[in-house]
Amino acid sequence: MAVIVFSPTDFVACYPEFANATDTRLTDIFNLVQYTMIDNTDNSPVMDPNFRTQLIYMAMGHLLLIYGLAPAQRSDGTIDNTPPGRISSATEGTITTAFQMEVTNANGSAAWWNQTKYGAMYWMATARFRSFRYFPSGVSGIGQAVAYGQPPFFVPGGV
After folding, report:
1. What's the mean pLDDT when you consider all of the chain?
2. Are 19 and 11 in contact (CB under 8 A)?
3. pLDDT tens digits for 108-128?
4. Radius of gyration of the chain (CA)
5. What is 137-158 written as a DSSP string?
6. pLDDT greater than 70 at residue 38
7. SS3 60
8. Which residues contact 57 (CB under 8 A, 6 or more apart)?
């Protein structure tokens, strides 16, 4: 397995809307993601380095929008400062805007990730890593245990 080495040029090529972010800022966000969100070591559950790179980039895009650190300038000269979250209501007179954050699960992680399009993509792409399937190995019963093809042994007291 390989550890992903960050290249700001490659990131901006994949996500040109963040072209105005400095290389230092992008590197800081990359380090934040690899140290706190995605294991970027040889022990990572995401073994494919290309897939891990894309996950890291999605998480970086999410954080850049959440922090508001990288608004891009459009070709007409206006600034695209995309707000974090989905707009649930907007008013034009005296300008009112409300953002939606639905916490539909116990830990609220999905709501946090679904505030941006990059976070929503990350959340969907990592679904298989949040799932757990248990396959018992052997037969277990009261007073004895059989595991991994080993001969049964007696557990005193029927624990």
Report:
1. 76
2. no
3. 677 788 878 898 899 999 888
4. 23
5. -S-EETTEE--TTPPPEE-GGG
6. yes
7. helix
8. 11, 14, 15
Q: Which residues contact 63 (CB under 8 A, 6 or more apart)?
A: 29, 32, 33
* Residue 151 pLDDT greater than 60, yes or no: no
How many Cα atoms within 13 Å fall on the side-chain side of residue 119? 19
Place of tokens 């494919």: 48
111-141 in b/e form (b: 16+ CB < 10 A) is: bbbbbbebbbbbbeebeeeeeeeeeeeeeee
CA distances to 14, 74, 93, 98 from 77, in Å: 22, 5, 26, 26
Domain spans of the chain? 8-129
At 43, which amino acid appears? N
